[in-house]
Design a protein that fits this description.
The chain is mainly α and about 160 residues long. The chain has helices spanning about 10-45, 65-70, 85-100, 110-135, 140-164, and strands at about 75-80, 80.
Length: about 160
């Protein structure tokens, strides 16, 4: 994707460049937040920390019989790997792409977009599982799935010119 034009910059190319910078910054922030959430879930799923530890903010604490129980269900794993570990990898790769300034370059952009779509689809399945199968209202899970959807939409907005 080429958000800038060669020659004299136009108002449109400047605005496009500004939009890409804003979107990149927002994706970086969302990825960092989601990375922390995924790290917390990973630590709980491997029993490295107590989900009710006092140092964890109350919004993030997972009750042993509620949110913490979902990280141990088979649906919280893909090919035996906790989904939180896959999330950590995804967010690290997203942050690397933004910091390395290649996330919006071809062909990388399409890999990021496809990976983001996969996280959204997995999130739809996991949200269904939370609501209708395990019946656990996990705020952190819903937050992560919502962030994944926003990241996907931001990637679509930033690359819409190349996709049409």
């Amino acid at each position: 994707m080429r958000p800038y034009t060669f020659g004299q910059p136009s108002v449109v190319s400047w605005m496009t460049g500004q939009l890409v910078v804003m979107i990149s910054t927002f994706i970086l922030l969302l990825s960092a937040i989601s990375f922390l959430i995924a790290t917390y879930f990973t630590a709980v799923s491997y029993r490295w920390i107590d989900p009710e530890a006092a140092w964890i903010p109350s919004f993030c604490r997972m009750g042993e019989r509620t949110c913490a129980s979902i990280v141990f269900t088979p649906r919280a794993r893909v090919l035996g790997i906790p989904t939180s570990v896959l999330g950590q990898l995804f967010y690290l790769v997203l942050m690397a792409g933004i910091l390395g300034n290649f996330i919006f370059s071809s062909p990388f952009f399409y890999f990021y977009l496809a990976g983001s779509l996969l996280t959204v689809l997995l999130g739809v399945y996991l949200t269904y599982s939370l609501l209708f199968l395990t019946r656990v209202p996990c705020k952190l899970c819903f937050t992560s799935h919502g962030i994944n959807l926003v990241i996907f939409i931001l990637l679509l907005i930033s690359g819409w010119q190349d996709l049409v």
